[in-house]
């Protein structure tokens, strides 16, 4: 297959990695048909052979946009950690794998925001205690709520952002989280 570049996360997609994190997706990539980026999950519209990866000049971003990006980065780290911990605690093997792959995707989203906002590192957050959830169903319900919150966050704040590239990225990631809502509802 020809190598593709993800304009959102910057990763290169080729025959060695196109099937990574496949449990985080409803439809699967095939070597002859790539539907999404296996690293950040955005759909094929954002995967190109020659175009440049989205980037912004941090100095052109106003303080509100930076604050929104900082919060988005934290939200994604928070969700990435949730999935990483939850994948250890759920019992069903499929849910385990799904959560593990979802954690990878959410961490990649955090890295995308980190780069756009020119932040030095990913935040270290206080880990909540996830053992309060007992059954797999409770974990799935918690996951679904987080994804709905993420979609709502992206949709609400994309209206307050001063930069077209950041708006495009928010739209792309919001669509990824919408699929996660569907995934975790089942
Ligand atoms: Zn990507």
From the 3D coordinates, which CATH architecture of the domain at 58-185 would you assign? Up-down Bundle
> Low-confidence parts, pLDDT < 50 over ≥5 residues?
none
Ligands in the model, by name, code or SMILES, are: zinc ion
Please state the structural category: mainly alpha
Overall geometry comes to globular
Question: What's the short version?
Answer:
The termini are far apart. The chain has four helices and three strands.
Describe this structure in words.
The chain is mainly alpha-helical and 186 residues long. The N and C termini lie far apart (33 Å). The mean pLDDT is 96. The longest helix is centred in the middle third of the chain and has 27 residues. α1 runs antiparallel to α2, α1 runs antiparallel to α3 and α3 packs antiparallel against α4. It has a domain of 128 residues: Ferritin (Up-down Bundle). Zinc ion binds next to loops.
Detail the topology: elements first, then pairings.
Blueprint (H helix, E strand, L loop, with lengths): L3 E3 L5 E2 L33 E2 L14 H27 L3 H25 L18 H22 L6 H22 L1
Antiparallel strand pairs: 1-2, 1-3
Helix pairs in contact: 1-2, 1-3, 3-4
Short descriptors:
mainly alpha, Ferritin, 3-stranded antiparallel β-sheet, binds zinc ion, Metal-iron-binding protein, Ferritin-like, Ferritin-like_SF
